[in-house]
Design the sequence.
């Protein structure tokens, strides 16, 4: 009799207690990964989005008209994307592609900037980009006509050279400079700016001693 009572109790359990639990609906959302612009002014940024939740299929619409989940060759700036699922639900987000600041050379600096390539120093200030760190100070590579080393800097001829400044990511700026090498017993730093622009004269001291006068060519 005890066994029959147990059976009757089981039969009286409501049918719903045997049903599977309901699935929780996931809200429509957007995740993304991005690659920032490597150098100022370039267009190599990239954004890739992943859509989740809602009801497939999805419709992707970027502000610039693209409809793919990946957009490439981007400049720095903010890009907006809207995703709509099959039920008409919409999710939006804005993604910012960043860039380092431009490399700049400022004349009339009171500081000496070491130029290893020429075993020299010059009275300019360099900034921007992504410099190396050298004893907590920013460090850039400086080349003349693509060369980073000269066995004898004093053997260079007078003339116009391309001076390239490069940072740790390979970002660079190049300015033409007219160089007139002359022997000097002393090397006072002097500068005459041209019309308050960034064109002017750079005084470079070579350690022999000698002095190189560099004038930024227009």
Sequence:
């Amino acid at each position: 009799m005890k066994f029959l009572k147990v059976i009757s109790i089981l039969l009286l359990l409501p049918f719903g207690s045997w049903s599977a639990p309901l699935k929780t609906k996931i809200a429509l959302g957007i995740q993304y990964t991005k690659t920032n612009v490597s150098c100022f002014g370039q267009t190599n940024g990239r954004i890739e989005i992943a859509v989740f939740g809602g009801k497939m299929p999805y419709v992707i619409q970027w502000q610039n008209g693209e409809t793919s989940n990946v957009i490439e060759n981007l400049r720095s700036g903010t890009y907006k994307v809207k995703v709509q699922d099959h039920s008409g639900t919409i999710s939006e987000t804005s993604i910012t592609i960043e860039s380092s600041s431009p490399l700049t050379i400022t004349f009339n600096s009171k500081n000496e900037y070491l130029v290893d390539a020429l075993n020299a120093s010059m009275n300019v200030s360099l900034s921007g980009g992504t410099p190396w760190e050298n004893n907590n100070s920013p460090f850039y590579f400086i080349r003349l006509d693509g060369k980073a080393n000269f066995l004898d800097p004093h053997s260079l001829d007078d003339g116009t050279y391309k001076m390239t400044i490069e940072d740790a990511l390979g970002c660079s700026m190049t300015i033409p400079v007219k160089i007139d090498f002359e022997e000097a017993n002393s090397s006072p730093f002097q500068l005459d700016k041209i019309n308050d622009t960034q064109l002017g004269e750079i005084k470079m001291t070579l350690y022999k001693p000698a002095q190189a006068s560099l004038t930024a060519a227009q």
